[in-house]
Amino acid sequence: MIEEVSFPSADGTLKLYGDLSLPPDDDGPHKKALLPAIVIVNGSGPIDRHGNIPKMKLKLNTSNQFAKHMVEDRPAGRSIAVLSYDKRGVGKSIKKGDKNLFYRTGMFDIVMDAVEAVRYVSSHPRIDKSKIVLMGHIEGAIILPLICREVNNNAGLPPIFGCIFYAGFGETLEKAMELQRENILADVQVETGVKGFLLKRLITEEKLIKQNKDMMAKVHAEGEPEYISMYCGLAKQPAKWWREHMTNDAIAALKQHITCHCLAVTGQKDVQVDNAPCSPEKAATLVPLAASIESHRPTNLTHALRSLDGRASVLNVKSDYVRMGKLPLDAELLSVTDDWCDRRLFGS
User: Fold this and answer.
1) H-type helices in 25-164, by residue range?
2) DSSP characters for 118-140?
3) Is the pTM value of this prediction over 0.90?
4) Is the confidence at residue 326, as pLDDT, over 80?
5) Beta bridge pairs of residue 83
6) Measuring CA to CA, which residue among 146, 151, 169, 187 is closest to residue 266?
7) What would you measure as the largest C-alpha separation in the chain, in angstroms?
8) Does residue 232 have a pLDDT over 70?
9) In this structure, what are the phi and psi dihedrals at residue 136, rounded to the nearest 5 degrees?
């Protein structure tokens, strides 16, 4: 059962719309039991409640698939409610006449909107407010510690019970950009023939560094613009969002603000973030205050949370995403998530 819901943005300037996925309330002998809930915090970009990017015509349906699995595919009495919502400026979460709302939104706006999502879920009559879990994918995983800090410092909200980090644990935006640059250059070097000849001349380390430097100069321009135009006005970038990410010490936040139960998963075929922080030894050092930490690095898991046979390549990311959008979520990812939920949320 999917309910369209809405709740106010953190600054009260608009309503954020989303889907709350629940099992039917006449679910046999378990109908009176309150449900644990997972709040999805999506990755960067104009992503909607379904896990899609309409502006890029990219349909992954990551959130839809995750919610369906948690509500419909788990054993009776062990369903988990899931809330996913449209970001500011995306889907129905819009303000009339403001076409740049998404680009004017900063990282801390996203953090505080997630706090309001937690507030909404914790007040729902079918939800066990003592068992609310955050699931962060990519940027969502990076900012989970900040959301936990704000929720746990809010006297009107229960503390976060757990955090699920997908493809972003122990990562920062700056480190991810550096890794992607390195992987692009590595991919170019293995290309052969005419394509390889052209790529080696068009894509060089110097050009990539200059491109990033030029963008950062605009981001940090005098007056601190909320957003900037790129490529002769053909594209926009959220400048406020970039500045706030660049000043956020995400690793320190992990160490200071994560006190709940944690699951961290990054795949070995993820070419956009580093999977090394998900080694058991490293993971334990990153969240020393956590109630528990479990981490996994599935062999074929990609950034899109699907399996990929063969070599992963940054140069093929867009075409891979289009193809993987038609595939189910990675079976190992769902398996380790189910096991973690059973142990932490249901005590078995």
Assistant:
1) 62-68, 101-104, 107-122, 139-152
2) HHHHHT-TTEEEEEEEEEEETHH
3) yes
4) yes
5) 20, 39
6) 169
7) 66
8) no
9) -110, 130
Count of beta carbons in the 10 Å neighbourhood of residue 272: 21
- Residue 259 CA to chain centroid, in angstroms? 20
First-last CA distance in the chain: 26
Mean pLDDT along residues 319-339: 94
Tell me what pLDDT residue 312 has.
87
For residue 117, the SS3 value is helix
As given in the structure block, the two tokens for residue 307 are 């399996």
Q: Do 305 and 202 contact (CB within 8 A), yes or no?
A: no
Answer whether residue 93 shows pLDDT above 90. Answer: yes
- The amino acid at 177: M
Dist. CA 249–CA 172, nearest whole Å? 8
Please name which of 144, 184, 192 lies closest in space to residue 164, comparing C-alpha atoms. 144
Confidence class for position 318, pLDDT limits 50, 70, 90? confident
Both tokens of 7, joined, read 């709740």
